[in-house]
Amino acid sequence: MDKYVDLFLDYLSVERGLAQNTLVSYRRDLDAYMKFLGGVSKKTVALSSREDIRDFMLHEKDKGLSASSIARNLTTLRMFYRFLSRERLIQKDVSGYIDTPKLWKHIPEILDLSEVERLIDAADLNTNQGIRDRAILELMYATGMRVSEVSCLKLSDINSDVGFVRCLGKGKKERIIPLGKKAITAIARYLERARPAQVKKGPVQELFLSRSGKKISRISLWKLIKAYAKKAKIKKSMKPHILRHSFATHLLERGADLRSVQEMLGHANISTTQIYTHINRDRLKGIHKMFHPRG
After folding, report:
1. Active-site residue among 154, 226, 241, 278?
2. Are the C-beta atoms of residues 75 and 33 closer than 8 Å to each other?
């Protein structure tokens, strides 16, 4: 069964170009399913049935997994069985006709403008690390890029003259995102004053470097954001995408059209971007309730 999983993940990596983080999630989901099949059902993938998949989903629900996590598991299994069937490694795809758990749309938390400014201003421009961190925070808020995308940025991806950044997103899909003046200024300051001191040996292509002179990891970026949020006394629950959510919401609040925001975020489906219109509606309801005489 491990061989089937390895073949599937190789296909996703080579043919579909999925990111390493996505592959890790798929492997985790499949490992849990294989463990369930071998332990509870005492079956192999080739002998599994639709009922085994349903039982696995119920098993995960009993363990306390959320509906969104179970839905992701089911998506992984559908792709897995479809691949095995197409490659004729199994006789029949048994994953069809299973209902996805009903999901509630969670409205993502965002920072307001004053919180964004406090977060960015928390980076000390008197140190090389602070100069780097200011550039990172400005870039993330200016573009809505994912933490993993910022981590992989190369020097050649930044075009300060034209004011754009080239981003390689999920599925290795390229998109071009405008840079604001403050982000361009912060990046230029970093390249001139801080980055040369961070390079330990030889030319390094990555834009943002760690203290050791290597590419900064997405985990380090996430810890950086949390640390500055604490320093700025921001009480909200900080999640990896909070600057991305804030970027999209603030654009829509100021009249940006949904299609443009979708393109900048790199969403394949506009329904994913529409979640930010719900944030605006909820905020308008709150304002109406607070200020209308009959609110």
Report:
1. 241
2. no
Answer yes or no: are the C-beta atoms of 273 and 262 closer than 8 Å.
Answer: yes
Is residue 27 annotated as part of the catalytic site, yes or no? Answer: no
> How far is residue 149's CA from residue 157's CA, in Å, rounded to a whole number?
11
Q: What is the largest CA-CA distance in the chain?
A: 67
244 counts as catalytic? yes
Neighbours of 141 (CB within 10 A): 23
Q: Which of 7-11, 133-137, 291-295 has the highest mean pLDDT?
A: 133-137
pLDDT digits (tens, 9 = 90+) for 48-105: 888 889 889 888 888 888 877 888 888 899 999 999 999 988 888 888 777 666 555 5
Expressed in angstroms, the distance from the first to the final Cα of the chain is: 60
SS3 helix, strand, coil % of the chain, rounded to 5? 60, 5, 35
Sheet holding 174-178, edge to edge: 158-159, 164-168, 174-178
pTM for the model stands at 0.68
State residue 113's pLDDT score: 93
Question: How is domain 2-86 classified at the CATH fold level?
Answer: DNA polymerase; domain 1 (1.10.150)
How far apart CA 131 and CA 111 sit, in angstroms, is: 22
Give me the half-sphere count of Cα atoms (radius 13 Å) on the Cβ side of residue 270: 6
Residue 188 pLDDT greater than 60, yes or no: yes
- Distance separating alpha carbons of residues 150 and 166, to the nearest angstrom: 10
154 flagged as catalytic = no
| 26 is a catalytic site residue | no
Which CATH number applies to 113-289: 3.40.50.720, 3.30.230.80, 1.10.150.20, 1.10.443.10? 1.10.443.10
